[in-house]
Amino acid sequence: MESKGYILMKLLLLMNLSVFCVSQDFDFFYFVQQWPGSYCDTQKSCCYPTTGKPAADFGIHGLWPNYRSGSYPSNCDSSNRFQQSQISDLTSSLQRNWPTLACPSSSGIQFWTHEWEKHGTCSESILKQHDYFEAALNLKQRANLLQALTSAGIQPDGGSYSLSSIKGAIKEAIGYTPFVECNVDSSSNSQLYQVYLCVDTSGSDFIECPVFPSGRCGSEIEFPSF
User: Fold this and answer.
1) Distance of alpha carbon 46 from alpha carbon 186, whole angstroms
2) I need a surface site. Which of 71, 100, 115, 147 has the fewest CB within 10 A?
3) DSSP per-residue letters across 136-186
4) Is the peptide bond before 104 cis (omega within 30 degrees of 0)?
5) What is the pLDDT of residues 150-164, one digit of tens each?
6) Is the CB of residue 156 less than 8 Å from the CB of residue 56?
7) Rounded to whole angstroms, how far apart are CA atoms 84 and 95?
8) Are 38 and 59 in contact (CB under 8 A)?
């Protein structure tokens, strides 16, 4: 027969494995901001949130755990549902800095729910729900993309700018190399859509990206107005 000590050791091992499976290890975060003018200036429609038209500024899309291999964990803990009460003190800041543009118009709760349950639960061993959203808001304050670009003469005026000048302006201001994602407008012109910066696993410090997402922009891209 197995001793009580051996049985206890097996139970503890199973518990540790269970915790490991829920927490999901990862190597870094992508912190992603999107330009609302590019989200809306496509063949797909956009809808302003119920709080009104967002400011003409980059908005947070997400804080996404990632692996150095380029893959990423997702939906890591289905039991850890988004709870609006946990971020009640952050709601007004989230509405300003993390607005939804999806249709139909909404308050943003559905957007934040999706981001937490798909991405945030994969970092819950380090960042609980409130910490996760607070970390993203803090990162946005430290990575003011619009200020970085306009200071370099790159304006959201519908004009075209070189991809290298956009990346250079952001690196000059923030200190780290960004990944720039483009989409296309209704006339199939390439335009500045999202900017990725990499963050360490604590969710607090920017780092150089171990790997960039796939995709590429043209050498000249539009910066549409909003």
Assistant:
1) 13
2) 71
3) HHHHHHH--HHHHHHHTT--SSS-EEEHHHHHHHHHHHHSS--EEEEEE-T
4) yes
5) 999 999 999 999 999
6) yes
7) 13
8) no
Cα distances (Å, whole numbers) of residue 99 to 86, 111, 156, 160, 217: 18, 8, 19, 26, 25
For residue 20 the two structure tokens come to 């490991």
Q: Do the beta carbons of residue 226 and residue 36 sit within 8 Å?
A: yes
**Residue 52 burial class via C-beta count within 10 angstroms: exposed 0-12, middle 13-18, buried 19 and up:** exposed
Q: Closest by alpha carbon to 135, among 176, 170, 94? A: 94
Please compute the mean of the pLDDT values over residues 14-24 and round it to a whole number. Answer: 44
- Integer Cα distance of 119 and 66 in angstroms: 9
Rounded average pLDDT over 48-54: 97
- Asked if 148 and 173 count as a contact pair (C-beta separation under 8 A), the reply is yes
Write the Ramachandran bin of 68: left for phi over 0, alpha for psi from -120 to 50, otherwise beta. Answer: alpha
What's the pLDDT band for 18 if we cut at 50, 70, 90? very low
Q: Which residue has the tokens 């729900």?
A: 129
Rg (CA), the chain: 20
Please identify every residue annotated as catalytic. Answer: 61, 115, 119
Residues with Cβ within 8 Å of residue 26, at least 6 apart in sequence: 65, 66, 67, 72, 73, 122, 123, 201
